[in-house]
Design brief:
There is one protein chain. By secondary structure, this protein is mostly beta strands. Helices cover about 5% and strands about 30% of the residues. The protein has one helix and nine strands; from the N terminus they run αβββββββββ. The strands form three sheets. A four-stranded antiparallel β-sheet has the order 1-8-3-6, with no helix packed on it. A three-stranded antiparallel β-sheet has the order 5-4-7, with no helix packed on it. The radius of gyration is 20 Å and the shape is globular. The C terminus is likely disordered.
Length: about 160
C-alpha cells in the first residue's frame, strides 16, 4: 500500500495546532511566517466613488492581471467595466474621473477599486509614464472593458 502524502498547508496547520498557536484567518496566513511583510493596499465592498460593488456575475470566472502604461500627458478613452476591477498605481500620477466630475487622484503605491458599469477615464497627470497594474475579475469569453467613446483624450482636455 502506497503511503499518502499530506499537503504542505495541512502540515503547516497541524504544526500550529501542535505548538498551541491559535487558528488564523486566511487573510492573515502569510503574517504567521517570519520575515514576510503583508500590506493590504485595498479591501472594500465599495468602488472609489463610495457606491457598493454589485454582486458577482454568473459564469466561469476568469482573472486577468494587466499592466497598463499611459504616456505622459495622455488619457484613456471613456470606458466602463462590467465586472469588479482593482488596480495599484506602481509609477506616476493618475487622475480617474467621471463625466459628472467625480474624481480620484492616485500617486505611486495607491490602490483603487474601479467603478463597475459606470463610465470613467484615467489621465496621466504626472511626469513620465503612469503605470498601473490592474486585476480584472471577469467571466471567461466576456470583455472586461467596454469603450463608451472611442477617442483617446489628453490629460489637458476639458472634463469628460
Amino acid at each position: 500500500m502506497r503511503p499518502t502524502r499530506m499537503p504542505a498547508m495541512a502540515i503547516f496547520a497541524l504544526s500550529l495546532l501542535i505548538l498551541g498557536v491559535p487558528p488564523i484567518f486566511a487573510d492573515d496566513a502569510l503574517k504567521a511566517a517570519d520575515k514576510i511583510g503583508v500590506d493590504v493596499l485595498m479591501k472594500s465592498t465599495a468602488m472609489w466613488n463610495g457606491e457598493r460593488l454589485p454582486a458577482y456575475a454568473e459564469g466561469q470566472p476568469q482573472l486577468s492581471v494587466v499592466r497598463v502604461t499611459i504616456p505622459e500627458g495622455m488619457a484613456l478613452p471613456l470606458h466602463e467595466h462590467p465586472y469588479a476591477t482593482a488596480g495599484v498605481l506602481v509609477q506616476g500620477r493618475l487622475e480617474v474621473r467621471t463625466p459628472s466630475g467625480e474624481q480620484a487622484i492616485l500617486n505611486a503605491g495607491d490602490g483603487l477599486i474601479e467603478l463597475v458599469n459606470l463610465p470613467h477615464a484615467g489621465a496621466n497627470i504626472g511626469e513620465g509614464d503612469a503605470v498601473i497594474v490592474v486585476v480584472y475579475a471577469g467571466i471567461e469569453g466576456q470583455p472586461v472593458t467596454r469603450l463608451v467613446t472611442p477617442e483617446v483624450v489628453t490629460a489637458s482636455d476639458e472634463p469628460l
